[in-house]
Amino acid sequence: MKLKSQINDIIKDAFDKAGIKHEPMSVSEATKPEFGDYQFNGAMALSKKLGKNPREIAQNILDALDLTGVLAKAEIAGPGFINLWLNPLWIATQSQSALDDARLGVGVRENPIKVVVDYSGPNMAKQMHVGHLRSTIIGDTLANLLTFLGDEVIRQNHIGDWGTQFGMLIAYLEMKDEDGSLSLKDLEQFYKDAKAQFDANADFADKAREYVVKIQSGDSHCLKLWQRFIDISLGHCEEVYKKLGVNLTRDDVRAESFYNARLPKVIDALDAKGMLAQSDGAQCVFLEGEEIPVIVQKGDGGYLYATTDLAALWYRAEVLGAKRISYVVDARQSEHFKQVFKVAKEAGFVAEDVTLEHIAFGTMMDKGGKPFKTRDGGTVKLIDLLDEAVVKARATIHDKEAYSQEEIDELAKIIGIGAVKYADLAINRESNYIFNWDKMLSFEGNTSLYMQYAYARIQSIFRKHNAPIEGDIIIGDVLEHRLATMLLRFEDVLERAAVDASPHQITTYLYDLVTLFMRFYEQNPILKEGVELETKMSRLHLADLTAKTIKQGLDILGIKVVDKL
Fold first, then answer.
1. Highest CATH level, class, for 114-159+254-359
2. What pLDDT, in 10s, does the model give residues 411-470?
3. Which of 141, 336, 380, 400 shows a CA-CA span of 20 to 30 A to 8?
4. What does the alpha-carbon distance between residue 207 and residue 203 come to, in Å, rounded to a whole number?
5. Is the pTM value of this prediction over 0.90?
């Protein structure tokens, strides 16, 4: 339910009835219960335009408000605020409807669009490290969210598979006369040894560069060896994705090599538009207001990242038909994407009505506020981090005798992986954040474990009740009113998070919801003897809707729930 939209429509109708010709400002959620459920603050902004006292304008709006359905009452406060209270009977009916709906009252978009979400982007011939974690988690959540809301989401995993490093690896493979039975761990060392040879041996370096040309020109022998490295690398990535519970598959991979045939066309199209200029032998695009040009072709004829990104944008807009293209890449690439997006629009590769956005994110830091590294200063391998999360999560399971060994193993995976993902998603994505095991595996605060515990606690209520839940939701007091209203705001939160590409808005909502439910649970007994049957059933319904909302919210974040904890 788009609750806020309904309130705004009521305000708009009041504007029309009051003869106010200006577009009304949007209502906002009230900050305190005594201020109602929503507030309208537009009277102050209209005061100068209409030449009237803001309280007089507010009174005109108030006199025209419909208080027969959604709203129960409205009051003017301060210099011209209008406090709005929802009708408890209407809240109860809408809450019951949400409970009976598989989507919890969240609608599917009437006019869905195609959205490309480009995320993860691991390096080939190397293991995934912590630097890939945020892109993978944030990107997958955004894709899940937009899919749930009804958009057609195309996941894209843009990998670098086309460059000097692969010529180097193939040349070293031939030199070592390997049989090709490489594990990824071997490949990691293999890469280091090949790089050392490349740096120390000029003849080897020349051969590696020659092999790059052969790969790019379609030499069958070189392509066969090249494909071996790609397959091994992607196999490792898929292992990490499975552990993380993200929805990237081999079919979602669109590597640099995929766009190779389009690169000359990019240059030709830019030239035809008169956008190219030569600088030190390189083909460049000089953008208005920018000192540094976008280099699209080197003097030796080679292409750059910008060329491939332009080809990808062209393909995604023209062939895939995307109307929103989102790149989940760290904030250090902001200037690059700003320039590439501008070139793509000016060249006509992407139409003006297509939204291009860089979903930037900050860096993961250690407790000392420095980039996250191993003790010896090396890069933390992502699979090792996830395995450590599961080990640490096992220690949080206190009553191990209540579970079988298989259940403990599964529970540790759900808690550990959920903790890593939630800790990332719980902060504003543009901020750096401190990676802290104790904080992320805490039962208190805005953590996945707190959410999972709340869900499990509600399930324990149902197990104790152990009977059908009948009757309807009844709003009997302030806490029930506040809890039901917050539950009805779920779609508004999801829509806002989708527009802003900000998963932390979902985690903030879930934390506020769970905190409110815990207060409701403490002050409004559910199964306690003496509670009237009608009240008990209503509160069980509210608990059920809360649990389902927690589960759906966590599902969008890619985090599982457990029935007991």
1. alpha beta
2. 999 999 999 999 999 999 999 989 999 999 999 999 999 999 999 999 999 999 999 999
3. 141
4. 6
5. yes
